[in-house]
Design goal:
This protein is mainly alpha-helical. The protein has helices spanning 4-7, 11-17, 20-29, 49-52, 56-64, 73-86, 93-107, 117-130, 132-140, 151-160, 203-215, 218-231, 237-249; strands spanning 33-34, 37-38, 143-146, 170-172, 175-177, 192-195. Among the domains are: 143-195, no CATH class; 199-252, no CATH class. The strands form 3 sheets. It has a two-stranded antiparallel sheet with strand order 1-2. A two-stranded antiparallel sheet has the order 3-6. A hairpin with a 2-residue loop joins strand 1 (33-34) and strand 2.
Length: 252
C-alpha cells in the first residue's frame, strides 16, 4: 500500500485496528487542500510526502482534527489511542499543544451523546493547560525567517563558478542559472531575522472555564482565568473573573 498511511508506518493500524467502514469514512472525511487543490485518496495512494514530513505523531494530530462529531467517536478513540502511544516521541512542546487542541475539539462535541466524552475533553484541557507556560515561552521566542540573497548576488555567485561542463542553464527571473538551481538552498544560514511571536486564544483554558461555569464551580473559573491572564493568553479573562466573583457573592 502506498500513500500517507504507509509513509507514516501505520499500515498495520490501518488494516487491523480499523474496520472497512471506518477506513472508508476516514478517506471520505480527510480531504486536505494544497496549492494543487483538494487531495482525495492521499491516505492510501500517491506519495503523501508533504504531509508525512513532520512525522507520524504530527500526522495523527492533524488527522484527528478532521473528526469532531459523535458519529465519528469510535474513529476518534482509535486515532487517539495510537497517537497517545507516540506522544513521548514528540520533542516539540508546541506540537503537543496542538494535539491536545485536536483532542478537545474532537471530544467536547460528543459530550451529550457519548458517556465519558466530557471527562475526556476535560482531561485534554488539563493536559494542554499543564504545558501552557512552556508553550507560551516557545511561541514568544519568535521564529527565524531566512533572507534570500538578492537575485543579482545569487546570479553572480552561481555564474562565477560555471564552466563548459555545467548542465544546460535554465532561466531564473531573467538570469541564466544552472539546471536544478534552488535559491532556497543558497541561503546564507547566518542571514535571518527574528519574527516576534504572538500568543493566541488558548482553547484549554477557555473551554475548561466554560465547563466549570456550567457546573457552577466559580472558584475554579477564577483560578483558571487568572492563570491564563497572568500568562498573557488573549481572552475575556477579566470579565470571566468579575462574573465568577459576583456569582460567589450571590452564593450561586
Amino acid at each position: 500500500m502506498s500513500g500517507l498511511i504507509s509513509k507514516c508506518g501505520l499500515d498495520n493500524w490501518w488494516k487491523k485496528e480499523l474496520t472497512k467502514e471506518e477506513r472508508q469514512t476516514i478517506e471520505s472525511v480527510f480531504t486536505p487542500y494544497t496549492s494543487s487543490g483538494e487531495m482525495r485518496g492521499i491516505l492510501t495512494s500517491g506519495d503523501g510526502s508533504a504531509f508525512a514530513r513532520e512525522g507520524t505523531f504530527q500526522f495523527l494530530s492533524m488527522l484527528l482534527g478532521w473528526f469532531k462529531k459523535p458519529e465519528y467517536y469510535q474513529i476518534i478513540c482509535k486515532i487517539v489511542k495510537v497517537a497517545d502511544s507516540l506522544i513521548h516521541t514528540e520533542k516539540r512542546i508546541i506540537n503537543k499543544h496542538f494535539y491536545y487542541l485536536s483532542k478537545i475539539k474532537a471530544y467536547y462535541p460528543c459530550r451529550n451523546a457519548i458517556p465519558g466524552s466530557l471527562d475526556l475533553a476535560i482531561k485534554a484541557c488539563e493536559d494542554q493547560i499543564a504545558i501552557s507556560k512552556e508553550v507560551a515561552k516557545e511561541i514568544l521566542k519568535g521564529e527565524k525567517r531566512y533572507t534570500l540573497k538578492s537575485e543579482e548576488k545569487m546570479a553572480a555567485d552561481i555564474l562565477e563558478g560555471l564552466d563548459d561542463k555545467d548542465s544546460p542553464p535554465d532561466k531564473y527571473e531573467g538570469v541564466t542559472l544552472p539546471d536544478g538551481f534552488n535559491p532556497v538552498i543558497h541561503n546564507d544560514p547566518n542571514d535571518y531575522e527574528i519574527i516576534p511571536g504572538r500568543l493566541y486564544e488558548h482553547t484549554g483554558y477557555k473551554q475548561l472555564c466554560i465547563i466549570r461555569e456550567k457546573q457552577g464551580n466559580w472558584g475554579e473559573v477564577i483560578r483558571l482565568a487568572s492563570e491564563a491572564l497572568e500568562q498573557g493568553w488573549p481572552g475575556e479573562w477579566d470579565k470571566r473573573i468579575e462574573k465568577a466573583k459576583k456569582k460567589l457573592e450571590q452564593g450561586k
